[in-house]
Amino acid sequence: MFAGSVPGLPDIVIKRNKTYQSMTLPDTLPDVETHSEGFRANRAARQNALAEDYVELIADLLDEGQEARQVDLAERLGVSQPTVAKMLTRLADEGLVARKPYRGVFLSHAGRVMAEKVRSRHRIVEAFLLALGISTESARIDAEGLEHYVGAETLDAFQTAMNAGLADFMAAARNGGDRE
């Protein structure tokens, strides 16, 4: 159970056995190791996020039978072609993609493995947001950012919650009804 409260934010209320418990976030800093680990994980995710976005998009285009050309990547990512060229050079140097003249971009085995991991995280996060009742458009947009920062334990918890009927629970909660 958490102790303390966060100024300006409401307490978190959890219903258990038809009794409401109020839980608030602690108002003290976590221990140094826990605190620094959170920042380390965030920095690592931030460093990998761009590469993961590119590799996932390349896989999506290829899997739909399209070519993954520099111009297509730039258009879909909303960036300039020189920005894409620079990132593709980085991805090639890291062994994630191969470029073939006049043929576009292809994934190496390592690139395909990365794309599948990112795609799986994306699908779980998006499905979780949809189960919460978030609109399809918002869930897709939010999942695009969150997928890079969610750890394995959190993904497992998301999946467990969905398997346990989170969507039904949330629908009942939005309708003001109890779920038996």
Describe this entry's structure for a reader.
The chain has 180 residues and is mainly α. 60% of the residues lie in helices and 10% in strands. It contains seven helices and four strands, in the order ββαααββαααα. The strands form two sheets. A two-stranded antiparallel ribbon has the order 1-2. Strands 3-4 form a two-stranded antiparallel sheet. Strand 3 and strand 4 (104-107) form a beta hairpin. Helix 2 crosses helix 3 (81-93) and helix 4 packs across helix 5. The chain starts with 11 loop residues before the first strand and ends in a 6-residue tail after the last helix.
Overall pLDDT confidence: 85
Helix content: 55-70%
Total helical elements: 7
Q: Biggest β-sheet: count, sense, barrel?
A: 2 strands, antiparallel
Summarize the structure.
The chain is mainly alpha-helical and 180 residues long.
Secondary-structure blueprint:
Elements lengths: L11 E5 L2 E5 L8 H32 L6 H8 L3 H13 L3 E4 L3 E4 L1 H23 L4 H11 L5 H12 L2 H9 L6
Antiparallel strand pairs: 1-2, 3-4
Helix pairs in contact: 1-4, 2-3, 4-5, 4-6
For this entry, give a set of tags.
180 residues, mainly alpha, two-stranded antiparallel ribbon, 7 helices, 60% helix, globular
